[in-house]
Design brief:
The chain has 485 residues and is of the alpha/beta class. It has 18 helices and 20 strands. Bound molecules: adenosine-5'-diphosphate and alpha-D-glucopyranose.
Length: 485
């Protein structure tokens, strides 16, 4: 059976700060369904109880050495997660940092993750067909494979794939980390890990992985431009032949309005009446009135990390205009204090129309997707975006900017409203079109139906990954036989 070792820093149901967790929570099972033996390795953060102890060993990186314990937890369809337990590194309040400041030893924390994943595989003695690392936190996996394991009997010459979920996060650290991570100073060169005098885990992976993927076709093109390449566009253009975009899927069991335990009344594409009950419950949860007038008014929602990427500055520029629209708003998110404050003060000034919930609340996110009429995602850039896909599936019409995965999943005037320019005026124009369309019940229902009928399942994406894995394996096999005496 072909096998894949996946490595990343978060996955549902164990730990989540964003979409990466949704992806890593679902992709291994989707691959397993296609006949792949899939193992995902991630840290065992504070509070994670899942899994049974399967192995323990000493992991050393530089002068750091710790007794790592490995806990295995089953995922669907026979896939599994292995949680790496190193309390001095992972038993902390948060995943990456506290109070907006990253943990200073993050390079070590994620170097140990990469090492632990590779060491565990080596100890088991079974060579995976492919290693698939995700985002900078797993960036040292391809780097270590080349630098430390090239002649290894199990791991030597393994083909690695690296997936970019977000190029804005680059794992950038002082260069003097290199020796502390068992990496030689040679890596401090522009064609390896060096990035403006520092070392970047992301750049190491972009150079050392055999294939690079990202999470939508449009983003794969955008990151090769100086505008959205964050300084990595040159290397990505150079590797354009090995770079593919594979759109994320969504977990259609977790996100299914017909089976969602967080909704008061289930519903499906045949009848979306259950949305009304969800709307009432949602408004109630936000402490907003639920009289007929409010219920008739379209409800526009956001669920988001409150950061520049997500277009909060556009919304800030419209702060005076939003309350004048014939709409209500509910926002769920955490992030930069200035955006949290903005929404909280809007909610305080217009309690009947605007609700803000600052926090991370998964059950509430489900209720929002069901209870809202429209979902707003005016992102500056968006590698894939999952919430617009959840919205489509829940009959909640997305209003999005035409970037990255948003452009690839939302079709203007068919299942959503799309605007191009990153300007408050363009956003307002799209919202205006949506509000107007909402008054025509028949046309609105047709848009909801179009969205709910889209195939957004992981199956489609997993098939693309498998095709790529096989191609890569084939190339490796050819390469190896050429070298054979
Ligand atoms: P990103 O990964 O850039 O944050 P995505 O749209 O890919 O954006 O994924 C975000 C994921 O995190 C979605 O599953 C979304 O529902 C969830 N999410 C974001 N903020 C919150 C929050 N405050 N409460 C609950 N879920 C949230
Ligand atoms: C990143 C991106 C988001 C994407 C997610 C999962 O967090 O910001 O667009 O959906 O990763 O791939």
């Amino acid at each position: 059976m072909p096998s894949v070792l996946l490595v990343g820093s978060e996955a549902t149901p164990f730990a989540k700060t964003g979409g990466l967790a949704d992806v890593l929570g679902a992709l291994p099972s989707a691959l397993a369904r296609l006949g792949w033996d899939a193992t995902l390795v991630l840290p065992r953060y504070r509070g994670v109880q899942a899994g049974t102890l399967i192995d323990r060993c000493t992991i050393s990186v530089g002068a750091f050495s710790a007794d790592a314990r490995f806990f295995e937890a089953p995922l669907r369809h026979g896939a599994r997660a292995v949680l790496v337990d190193v309390p001095e590194l992972y038993d902390r309040d948060d995943l990456y940092g506290t109070g907006g400041v990253d943990y200073p030893d993050n390079p070590r924390r994620f170097a140990v993750l990469a090492r632990a994943a590779l060491e565990l595989t080596a100890r088991r003695g079974i060579r995976p067909s492919i290693v698939h690392a995700h985002d900078w936190q797993a960036g040292l996996v391809p780097v270590y494979l080349k630098a430390l394991y090239d002649g290894h009997p199990v791991l030597g010459g393994l083909a690695s794939v690296f997936t970019i979920h977000n190029l804005a996060y680059q794992g950038l650290f002082e260069a003097d980390w290199l020796p502390r991570l068992d990496l030689s100073w040679d890596l401090l060169s522009v064609d390896r890990m060096e990035f403006w005098g520092k070392v970047s885990f992301l750049k190491g992976a972009l150079n050392d992985a055999a294939m690079i993927t990202t999470v939508s076709k449009t983003y794969a093109v955008e990151i090769q431009t100086s505008e959205l390449g964050f300084g990595f566009d040159g290397i990505l253009r150079r590797r354009a032949e090995d770079l593919v975009g594979i759109l994320n899927g969504i977990d259609t069991l977790e996100w299914d309005p017909a089976r969602d335990p967080f909704l008061p009344t289930p519903y499906s594409v045949r009848s979306v009446e259950g949305k009304q009950a969800a709307k009432v419950e949602l408004l109630r949860r936000y402490g907003m009135p639920t009289d007929d007038g409010v219920l008739k008014r379209p409800l526009i929602a956001m669920i988001s990390r409150m950061v520049d990427q997500k277009g909060f500055d556009l919304i800030a520029a419209l702060a005076g205009e939003l309350p004048l629209l014939e709409a209500s708003f509910t926002v769920l998110g955490t992030g930069e204090p200035r955006y949290q404050d903005l929404w909280q003060s809007l909610a305080a000034a217009y309690p009947d129309r605007i609700g803000a919930h600052i926090g991370f609340d998964e059950p509430l996110a489900h209720l929002v997707e069901a209870g809202a009429d429209m979902f707003l995602m005016p992102s500056r850039f968006e590698p894939c975006g999952l919430n617009q896909m959840y919205s489509l599936r829940y009959g909640t019409v997305p209003i999005v900017r035409a970037v990255g995965g948003l452009a690839d999943t939302v079709h203007d005037d068919i299942d959503g409203f799309v605007f191009r320019d990153y300007t408050p005026a363009a956003l307002l124009e799209a919202m205006g079109r949506a509000l107007e369309r909402f008054t025509d019940r028949r046309k609105w229902r047709a848009m909801q139906t179009a969205g709910m009928k889209q195939d957004l399942s992981w199956d489609r994406s997993a098939r693309e990954y498998v095709r790529m894995y096989k191609r890569l394996e084939g190339q490796r096999a050819k390469g190896r036989s050429r070298l054979d005496p």
